[in-house]
Amino acid sequence: MGWRKQRTAVMKAARRVVIKVGSAVLTGPEGLDLRIVSRLADQLADLHDQGLDVVLVSSGAVAAGRRRVKVDIDGMPARQAASAIGQSRLMHAYDEAFERYGKTSAQILLTRDDLKSRKRFLNVLNTFRTLLDWRVIPVVNENDTVSVQELKFGDNDSLASLVVNLVDADLYVNLTSAKGVFDSNPDNNPDAKCLPCIENICAMDLDSSCDGKTTDGTGGMYSKLLAARRTAQLGVPTLILSGHEFYGLKRVFEGEELGTWIVPDGKSISSRKFWLAYNNQPEGVLTVDPGASAALVNRGKSLLPAGITAVDGDFGEGALVRITDPGGDTLGVGLVNYAAADIVQIMGRKSADIASILGSCPYPEAIHRDNLLLDAAV
């Protein structure tokens, strides 16, 4: 099936969609633009009326706070304070906009810690399931007032990809300030062209393809493509679309070809592997020799201590670590069976030697293949 036929089929068959909207779309010179919020709610309500489950991941709390206090927002404490002021106002704007269409919305504020804990992850999952069963529209945002790193680095694109996994969505739509993904930076090249489709996002060099960030947000096209690469591993396509396109969301679901369609991988990973790879931050690095690299990549093997040549970081048992080849390229990520100090002692040694070195051998592998994800988008 060609990508155009695939796009048409997915848009028609989708039953659950995650839509992310960024600050650069929602804001104007005075801060949060209530007209844009209203227009977005109009389109989402229409999709909801057609039977789709709709989950909205929305930035804009800082912008809403800025509009209220009308002061310069400079520095992390000011951004967090503006977010604290603006989050309730952002949600109030959505509540009022959806109410006009007889829709009920619900606020869900998340931090990475909420999704890192498997127990809390399942609690969040059950909340989403119940809300969607009740035909409520969840409005999700990063809990900016406590998530310093996420607020600083603009992680709502990443959050949205995690929500795709949480709710088992069929489609991910990212509404941005650009018309889609361009073949070069349109700010520097007036002849840059919008790509209608990216058929193999895993083959893209995101670092060289993207630069810059939006004025009102803290992310850019890099974070959007990284999120799309993650959802592609779930077998879920992404549509990157201009949020400034007049009723663009409605038009694409009616069949108009706008934005950039990102084709999912042919073979999807499990929800559990997605969770372990992306709901945690890598706490260290294991470098492996060529033999171990080939065993991991070509034969789907576990990582044994014998193949490890270097350990970087002070991590504990069960931590997520990055695995790199001898050249420093990332092979994947995985959950370690041993703490860093223990791996330093057993690296380069056979599994049969572990007990004599550490006093016991609870695991023959440093990382079991069931707890490892290759080609992780980290």
TrEMBL record:
It holds the Pfam family AA_kinase. Pathway: Amino-acid biosynthesis; L-proline biosynthesis; L-glutamate 5-semialdehyde from L-glutamate: step 1/2. One of its GO terms (molecular function) is ATP binding. Its main location: cytoplasm. PANTHER family: GLUTAMATE 5-KINASE, ISOPENTENYL PHOSPHATE KINASE. This is Glutamate 5-kinase. Keywords: Amino-acid biosynthesis, ATP-binding, Cytoplasm, Kinase, Nucleotide-binding, Proline biosynthesis, Transferase. Its EC number is 2.7.2.11. ATP binds at K20, T218, G219, G220, M221, Y222, S223, K224. The keyword Cell division does not apply. Residues 284-364 form the PUA domain. CDD domains: AAK_G5K_ProB (cd04242), PUA_G5K (cd21157). It comes from the Bacteria. Substrate binds at S59, D144, N156. It catalyses: L-glutamate + ATP = L-glutamyl 5-phosphate + ADP. Belongs to the glutamate 5-kinase family. The keyword Phosphoprotein does not apply. The lineage of its organism: Bacteria, Pseudomonadati, Thermodesulfobacteriota, Desulfovibrionia, Desulfovibrionales. GO terms for biological process: L-proline biosynthetic process. GO terms for cellular component: cytosol. It is found in: Cytoplasm.
